[in-house]
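Fold it.
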Amino acid sequence: MKNLYIIALVLSLTTNAFAQKKAAGKQSKSVLIMNGTAHLGNGKIIENSVIGFKDGKIQLVADATLVRIDMSAYDLKIDASGKHIYPGFIAPNSTLGLVEIDAVKASDDEDEIGNFNPNVKSLMAYNSESRVTETVVSNGILTAQITPRGGRISGTSSIVQLDAWTWKDAVIKENDGIHLNFPNTFRTGRGAENGVIEVNKDYVKQIEEITSFINAAKSYNSTTPKERNLVLEAMKGLLEGQQTLYVHANNEKQIIDAITVFKENGIAKIVIVGGFEAYKVASLLQKNAIPVLLRRVHDMPLNDDQDYDLPFKMAKILTDKGILVGLENSGEMERMNIRNLPFLAGTCAAYGLDKEIALQLITSNTAKILGIDTFCGTLEEGKDATLFISQGDALDMRTNKIKETFIQGRLIDLENHQSNLNKIYKAKYNQN
């Protein structure tokens, strides 16, 4: 029995090893994609396009009817006739790679003990071999902001591309910003009052704690301290304007108070994450050039007196008011649901936004908000060749059928655990 157990264990480990996908190698062959409809991610479309890239960078984006191409300059030629080409989608405020199985505590590394943790770096815990990530890539999400959770200041996020051996291979922007959960004006009662919404009596005190912490960080980083304090030291980039403060807040008063507090304390770069009632303070956001990463679109309104379809219309409302908007998808089963990010944008299009503007919510807008728009977010010459070819409209779950995917010019294997299961059970039920 002991020998049988050892054999079973070895077979299990071997199976898992072979099941793990390997990262693609560096782009070695130049690629030319022809005849497809290119959605550039900046609001423009080229109906009959040619896109060429080499060494991980896009060299050519043009209308095939207006340019002459030296075909011999490209090793691999792809005919995308009848198909659509998109820049890779970007998932902000994501916990991809930080939790593999929610019910297995050992695989959960999304938050840390303590209330003020700017020194906690999510990148150190990022698992580039996550099986969840494979399913996300197969829907066109090729870049993600890996974000910690919990506490008042959760920690520092980083931005990665989703095809790598390790976090070091994956990172494209390290420590891009610090995430702060602004105090709620209301809270749910506990014990006998469980489920009853009540005023947060500690609201002012909690804001004062944030201000005190910022002042302590300012004092520490403006002098030469006798003893090193990693927590306060981690605030230096934010205070000097090199990092962004991502403020997680939803209701009107939260957003107003957050902007007031952080502007008074000299925080230069602010992004509102969630922002469900941001439309109520649009003029304030516009005046201060503060963008919004809008909370999950496929959700219910926060309050009983709001339109049932307000979440679906929110992106258009904010866009029409001149706010730079991106989409995020945190919440229940958020890692598995990140694969639905393109369909959130599709819903925004169904509720009033032009389809190409809706596409910007998960491409160029998000790239600008995260500060990575110089090398990704659109199909433009000089940018990373991070893109994919879809059989149809990538914002529609019925037609988002991805045929080829490239990350920094590397052709990505789209096979994953879920697609393999699909083949197995198709064979099972179609075997007769």
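Residues 203-221 form the longest helix (19 residues).
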